[in-house]
Each structure stands twice: as structure tokens, then as C-alpha cells.
Amino acid sequence: MSTASSESSPAAYDRTAELHALDTTYAGVRGLIASGVTHVPRIFRVPDQHHEPRQDGTVPAGQEPAAIPIIDLGCGDHTAVVAAVRRAAAQWGFFKVTGHGVPEDTMAMAMDAVRAFHEADGGEGSDKARLYSREPARAVKYHCNFDLYQSPVANWRDTLYVRMAPTPPDAGDLPDNCRNALFDYAHQVKSLGNTLFELLSEALGLKPSHLTDIECNQGQVLLCHYYPPCPQPELAIGTSRHSDGGFLTILLQDEIGGLQIFSEDQWVDVAPTPGAFIVNIGDLLQVFKSC
Hints:
GO terms for molecular function: dioxygenase activity; metal ion binding. The chain is an alpha+beta fold.
């Protein structure tokens, strides 16, 4: 995809053509890096008005940087865990969980499998080409930005999307190098999700099965994002500011980090914690809590 003359001759810039050129490679942002690009294409460049204001990250002497709570689900004190979940959900809408019962090798194998898929070549005849789609009905698909043609700025990110519940996909629909790892991971995380819904039910003063009884736990989607190295990171963004629309997000973060959450009028860095998941209370659960 050509990126050379967009700045020198803005009248000649055809955004739709550039989006289409990227889309038809079936290789996403990773394909750009593999092709040797040294500049961020214009479709990914964040205009100045879209940048968040810079914040002074200086922490006053004697004060710890803000950080989301870490809750050990396996501590053995159920009452304390419910209370901690209640506080974290109310104050932050986010918390980390350890002692969750998901084996670390399951987490590592899923991460490695997703990375292997994204770092494989794209193009005609590849798994990426076979799965490349934004069709809502497809249970397994790969794409560069689900809203590529609607968003004013494309995110520097590729995604493998797998809808695991309520109806799991055919095994053959998943990429060979991801199949077993993602099915195992989804099973383990679904169990963790059920535990979290029980804790959240109790935190709301309801019986443990309440959120499950009203089927908050029926769906499960794996969004396997990949953020390739960026030649000009100050010009692009991996994921735009947003809120999660479902009931609950359980996020497995790699060792690189980069996640931020907005709390009390400031962006807070969420540093990786080995072996932990990040839990995000989604919009639908926020609505339920407010009713």
C-alpha cells in the first residue's frame, strides 16, 4: 500500500482507496510491517484534536501512583473477597484477579497461539485470507479494525474474533495453530466468568446465582488483539478510547502493557501482573446495577 505522497498533495488523497488497498491484502497491520513500511499510513494517523491532553505523571512525594485493586480469589476468605469485589467494582469498574484457578500454562499457550496466528503471513490461500471478514453472523473471523470503513481513524491493531458461546464454532473454523489452545482457554475462562458473576451477584446483595439465572453468562467472545510494532507510535493509537458494551470483560494482558483506564478525571496505567486477569465491568452490567 502506497503511503508516499499523501502529505505533499492532500488533494490527491483517496481515503477509501487506501482503506480498500489495506483490506485486500488480507494481512492487516502486521502485513504492513512485514512489507517494510517506515511511516504510519494516513488512515492510521490520529489528528491533533483526537489526542488526549498530556497529563503530568508526577506523583507527589509520599503518595503511591493510582492502581486498580488486586483481588486474590483463592485467599479462603469468601466474605472478604465479596467485599473487595464490591469496592473495586463501585470505585473503579476494574480489578485484577489472582488465585482464579486458570492454569498458567493454559494462559501462556493461548497467548502463544494467538501470537503465532497473527505473525504468520497473510495473503491469498492463508488462514488469514480464509477468515478475513466483518460479517456479524460469522463466529470466527479475522480483520484489521471491525469498523475500518466507519471510524475516522483506524487503530494500529489486528483482531482474531472467536464467538465461543452460546453455540461453539466448528473446530475446523479455527486456525490450525490456535484451535486446541483457544478451546481450552475458553473453557477455563468461562468457568472463571461464572465465579465472577456469583461474586458480583453477592456484591449487589443478591443470591449468588442471580446474574447466571438471568443469563448474563450465556455469551462468550474471544477478541484476540495483536498490536504490531509501530514505526511512528506518536502518530497512531492501538485502541481508541471506549467502554466495553457487554456484561463482563476478562482480559489477559501480555508483558508489554499499554492499557490505561480513565478514573476520576485521569488516565491510569495498568501495569501487567504475571498470572493475573483484568476484570472490567461492562456497560450492560452497569445498567443493571443502576436499575
